[in-house]
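This section describes the prediction task in plain terms. A model, or a person checking by hand, is given the sequence of a single protein chain and must write out its three-dimensional structure as a string of tokens. No templates, partner chains or ligands are provided. The sample shown here is typical of the held-out split.
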Amino acid sequence: MTSAHRVVVLAIDGVYPFELGIPSRVFGAAGGRYEVLTCSVDGRPVRTNSDFSIAVEHGPEALRTADTVVIPPFVTNPLPREVPQAVVQALASVAPGTRLVSICSGAFVLAAAGLLKGRPATTHWVVADLFRASFPQVALDPDVLFVDDGDVLTSAGAASGLDVCLHIIRKDHGSAVANQVARMCVVPPWREGGQAQYIQHPVPEATGSGTATARQWALENLHEPMTLTDLAEHSHMSLRTFARRFTEEVGMSPGRWLIQQRVDRARHLLETTDLPVDEIAGQVGFAGGTSLREHLHAAIGVSPLAYRRTFRGALTPTH
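The expected answer:
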């Protein structure tokens, strides 16, 4: 039996307790596939941003043994453009090729250490402008829940730490394991949309109805052709009003949302069935296999065959 993948969480003074606990809670629910350790830069207790401190069991030497390092957010004013020397020394002990993960403003640590230079990344939308001004060499995308750039993953605020940890499990062990972990943690295995749906906007005036009914109808009929007019009719709105309300409620346009749902449904079928690509395309409402290939590649950068090989191959074959 292979040894468990070691995840080491680096707790920095001022750490947010919720995000600090996410890796242990999520990876710990994966049936022994991961071992999670928590360390500080000096092995001493760590202040949290709340009214208590946390005693950790490990010092920076744990980072040398990590397969994955996670950096949760912490309170500091201002957020760091330069990494404290103790953190620099701790991160220097991480072996080359170790997977690095940040949650929320933990991305500031990776960027200040020069580990995000020339890479795509994200962070909490509230500090996105500050991040962009501080690290212009990083390709910041503030609209997504997380960014996977291979050996470096960054995530947005708070609960997006759950999203990125589940995504890592999905990559490592396939959707069946990730879905089971999500059920154990009572969270969705995959959240639609990005940070745009959580950014503060003026509250729209109530009209007595929303677009949820149209979205539910669309999800039940993805295999059918549908237009913006069809969706608007199911919400009893004009096209213009529907498009505006939909974007306010969901954080993206109806057309983009519909494509995303079709791609997500196609991914599920690629993972869980042996159906041909053309048949899957028909079941999710794409015009054909070519259209599915184009949309899947645009969404996640791989072909249906490569996607199926990755996620079906990660699962234990059934007979």
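For orientation: The longest helix spans residues 254-272.
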